[in-house]
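Bug report (template v2)

What were you trying to do?
Predict the complex of my protein with heme C.

What happened?
Run completed; filing so the output is reviewed.

Input:
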Amino acid sequence: MGTWLGLAWALLCLPGLGDGHGRLGGPAATIPRADAQAFSFPSPTLTATQRRAFSVGNALFKTNWVSAPASAAGRDGLGPLFNARSCSACHLRDGRGRPAERGEAAETGDLVRVALGGAPHPLYGGQLQDRAILGAQPEPAPLLEWEELPGLYPDGVRYSLRRPRWRGAGSHQEGLAYTALVAPHMIGLGLLEAVPSATLHALADPEDHDGDGISGRVHLVRDRRTGELAPGRFGWKASQPTVEQQVAAAFVHDIGITSSLFPEEPLSMEQLEQNPSAASEAPELDDLKLSRVTFYSQVLAVPAQRAAGEPEIRSGEEHFSVLGCAACHRPALRTGPEAVLSGYQSVEIHPYTDLLLHDLGAGLADGRPEGDASGSEWRTPPLWGVGLFDAVNGHSFYLHDGRARSLEEAVLWHGGEAARSRDAFMALSAGQRHDLLAFLASL
Ligand code: HEC
Ligand code: HEC
């Protein structure tokens, strides 16, 4: 492993080669790291002033918020209901959260959303906050169990997938749909934000006019800053249009901290009556702090691909394109002239996403629409960094709820628009499958 990586870095540093796909985040945002801190570095081109803003954002990202009023002025406002006290509790080392193994989904880096007949729950809303400050009533978390689903490749090799099974708790009634969502890794978000909306509209093919079986569509959502509809880019169902709005949504839904973008606590009438002090105060987070956490979240660098030139990685990359994976996980996108850093403007990046919604079939569906996204639609997640979850977070769980225990299981879960691609993967020889998975692990 050590020499393998050493070789990769040596290749990367050779003049000429560094401009290729190895530099996943483009020239201004790629760093040669593959260790536990690999997701936590700022883009190397920050000015001194920007570095200070990044550090303040980093500190706020790690802050344990406390309930108001507190002597710790400036970091209170927690709750009344919340999932975790800090951003980093879920986005540990800016990496991927892990699902609950058994029992309640707790603060391990995931959260549980809920729907009743396709709409938010009348009492609990769309997300279950299973923790509360003193005197408030937390929302009851359902129990999660995993069920094994054995399967067979055409060549006779066995595999087993696991799917979540929920058991309602507390006053949960029949007909509720639950989803666990794990925290995505935080890298390269300012680059994804800088891909022009026109590019996303051009990639979309909602009626599948080109007949390739793949019909991605833009998730149009309300941008709270402008009041306009804009393409959603962030979250597993692309529900947030900008990093700022995603960050403000996380503050209010996950930690219970209001801001100018989300001035109200996500409480039902009944819960507001029980917590009168939560109603209509001034925003708990001021705009300066919001902007610092936003900046931090925008400029985290992307680790370079490892061993991009190795024969097995190249062969895997070839399969990735032939199998049709690249139709959704786009290997190259160009950012536009508007970006948070000048180095992020008009550059080619290699995120392996189209930021579009795709129907991935019944196997992954959660029966819980979000905005215009149906229960079976998910945003293509960027694949940069997927080979580093083990190094950064000590696990290799994939997909929106962390059900896949390896990259292989993640691929096998693909259905719907990606069913053809999955079948083609299954039909490969064991050696070819190995190469494809090695390519994914190099990202
Ligand atoms: C309880 C766990 C939890 C906490 C706490 C949390 N997050 Fe998240 N974060 C998530 C999950 C789960 C998602 C995916 C949400 C979705 O799909 O709608 C997410 C998504 C995001 C994204 C979008 C990433 C992407 O690739 O789409 C950003 C940015 C983000 N969170 C930042 C923050 C910040 C900043 C904080 C602190 C204010 C925070 N999060 C607190 C779990 C958490
Ligand atoms: C139709 C679009 C589409 C195609 C084709 C497709 N994917 Fe995906 N991929 C997705 C979506 C959407 C998800 C997220 C699904 C979820 O989390 O439930 C995903 C998730 C993944 C993940 C897990 C990522 C993570 O962060 O957890 C991997 C790995 C992956 N795909 C690899 C592949 C490979 C390899 C192929 C080709 C064999 C492929 N995909 C084909 C859309 C696609």
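What did the reviewer find?
The chain has a mean pLDDT of 91. The chain has one domain: 2-441.
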